[in-house]
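Researcher: Please generate the 3D structure of the following complex. Treat every line as part of one assembly.
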Amino acid sequence: MLYLIGLGLGNEQDITLRGLDAVKRCDVVYLEGYTSLLQCSVEELETLYGKKVIVSARGDVENKMDEIIDSAKEKDVALLIVGDPMSATTHISFLIEARKKGVEVKVVHNASILTAVGVVGLELYKYGKMTSIPFHAVAQGVTAPYDALFGNLECELHTLVLLDLDPVSNKFMTIPEALDVLLGIEEKVGKGIINLDTVVVGVARLGSDNPVVRVGTVKEVKEMDFGKSPFALIIPSKLHFVEEEVLEMWKC
Amino acid sequence: MLYLIGLGLGNEQDITLRGLDAVKRCDVVYLEGYTSLLQCSVEELETLYGKKVIVSARGDVENKMDEIIDSAKEKDVALLIVGDPMSATTHISFLIEARKKGVEVKVVHNASILTAVGVVGLELYKYGKMTSIPFHAVAQGVTAPYDALFGNLECELHTLVLLDLDPVSNKFMTIPEALDVLLGIEEKVGKGIINLDTVVVGVARLGSDNPVVRVGTVKEVKEMDFGKSPFALIIPSKLHFVEEEVLEMWKC
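Model: Done. Output below.
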């Protein structure tokens, strides 16, 4: 049996009872390598589960798909995934390949950033494709987050922008830095989608039990204090009046 | 302290360790009345938590918002919510009202139907507004699900359609029944968005650990066996070729 188990968005305490029970039953436990998104160490996971956790980079997990599925023919194998296992296409391939090979799969769902962003109060079905800003965005002339924002705005969709982080070297992109990246691309590309007066939502610790949500113009949000990382931005598209009211309330 | 705690999509085992710990610490525990969506009884929840659970209809929870928030000034109060607490606007009002009253709120996230539908393999950000078909749709001339489908297709968005259920009287709308409702509305309204050749996805037990996903034309899907309820339909809009490939694979 192959278990695809979501770990949710916080630390080792965010696994479900069903998920923990399954991990404890497994002979082999893989963790997909987005460990930087976990607010705990691999050792803390191992202590809770009472077994060894094999950390595998995301690309590795894809490359090892056949091997992992085959091993689940005779053993109970868990693949742990930060967030919800079904939010990424890779894991759906696991389901389908396993089915082809006659290996049974059980998915244990959990919280995903795609619904945790609901805390902001904008309708979830009005979010377009999520994007992220990498540390090297300016140096490498990356325009992908700006392009994603442009595409979403064209379709009147909101945009969730995740900011890069590297807890090992204690580096976290801040909201002012991210806004400067977007303003910098705007200056070069000039499609007129963001400026100092654009209303944006700054968020810290989305999906944790103490998120901060603050709303203002780019100029205002750049001056706000969001406390500890990780950070994200939401750039709203056209707002329904109920959404406007909710954003207004976050200004209190 | 007020805790908004997601229960996830299955039974009492789908709460997270963080959520269970919080419930056990609370003096008063409310459960928002979507208990029909839980695959366990309120008694099973009470046994796990070791305390009384007060079931409150959804409208009641909204009406009681002030009372619940005020009681959380002096006590630890939990409001349990099926799925993820931040997928519905009501609960965001709780956050905002509590902030106004100076009451601290902790949200414990969990799985939501909005990401669990990811199992189908269509991009989550390409889903439009979710809709549902009530039992009395035909008798009462309800066209809302058809209208939602039309709106989503206009914007090239996929539609998740949840089918009504009433476990107390052991009634579950089946996929053929739901398709007949949509075909019936099509016949009257005639916008030409669904017919026997339209490709749709039938799903059973979405969010559980044994979902069934099957793809075919309306005519084909009406003949398929999906096993036990609850059921849902996905009516895809324009597909990216990767999405087409995934749907193709579900046909195997």
